[in-house]
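ingest -> fold -> write
write: protein_1
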Amino acid sequence: MATTVSTTPTWKFVWGDEFDGKAGTSPDPTKWGYETGGTGWGNNELEFYTDRTENIYLTGDGYLAIKAIKEPYQGKQYTSGRLITLGKFEQTYGRFEASIKIPKGQGMWPAFWMLGSNKAQVGWPNCGEIDIMENIGKEPKTIHGSMHGPGYSGGNPLTGTYKMSLFSCAILADKFHTYAVEWEPNVVRFYFDGKLYQTKTPANCPKGTKWIFDHPMYILLNVAVGGTWPGSPNNTTSFPQTMLIDFVRVFEQVK
């Protein structure tokens, strides 16, 4: 009888955050830093990202909250938060996953993603970007998983979607879901609640472009408000809107 050899990777935990801590306190500063400001972030976004505990805080019962608030602040109409691990944790390859309850409403744009740690040296999109989870509020049942690089960025990334059943009244914001990628040399697999929904390899790159996902990347968590892709909030959007994160975990492959 022929022996079947499994090609499923085995993963070993190497880094993470369970967000345990006192209610109203900031996340662990040894693991997370902040990006702040109201530049629009290249997407015509409407929020000002702050490092205030009004926008980013531990709930006291094991969650991280990133809250988008409708308020005048530094010339903007909204505040929110954007956390990064740059300078604290970066890794090449592995399984990156988070359990998240996303916000909802027109104009909301939550994301769990990665950028190349060489961004300051080579710029975007040459550094590479892997969007593990993006949602725009006008698509309450759809998750986007995308990859950006030189020649396939902005509105033309390597991308795919996972869509919940149209026959159910459930939407993504109703409960926590686990969003993950498994990133290995020359392949990235995207998962929703453990279900593989797309795989990208160098063969998916447009002709004349290069696969650049072979160097350390860092993690980002944020809730944007408005922008070119989701559009602005309207009178159907209630505020504040909060993204809750139960955990972020990173694994490396056991050889």
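write: protein_2
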Amino acid sequence: MASQKERMLRGELYDPRDPELVAARLAARLRLRAYNDSPPGDVALRDRLLRELIPHAGANVWIEPPFQCDYGGNIALGDDFYCNFDCVILDIAPVVFGRNVLLGPAVQVYAATHPLSAAARRTGLELGAPVSVGDDVWIGGGSIVCPGVRIGARSVIGAGSVVTRDIPDDVLAVGNPCRVVRAIGAEDARPNR
């Protein structure tokens, strides 16, 4: 019989009150508190604390405190990842970021969800779906990425967007719900004015 953690990671209904999961969330909260309260200038301490929280982190990873997540161990960060202030990642399923990803302030990434049926929600069981963000993606401030979404490489998500569906590679997508506005081309290489 599968453990509640195994069920959670497979995207099946699971019981978040399971003692193993409760203990794992508590351990993450303690690590988050230490990270979020760490001195801004102590880069070595912050890096060590972040890698204890998120063991699957590449080189040159930086997350501005405050930051919140469920477990940390279900997050993978590629090299040269930057996350601005006040971000939340609900990682009850795998949340994978490629290389050179930028998250603006207050970005929220949700792998967690609940059953649509009220009767099923009353059981207290939850479920999730993995989130994947490709290389060289920029997600603008205040955006929300919903469970099960894949954002393609080199795409840009405009600030305040709610991403409910997959976004292809090499596009600018904005809005609520987030929609592709146009392809990103060579003319986009110069800085915005």
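write: annotation protein_2
The longest strand covers residues 179-183.
The CA atoms of residues 15 and 125 lie 5 Å apart.
pipeline exit 0
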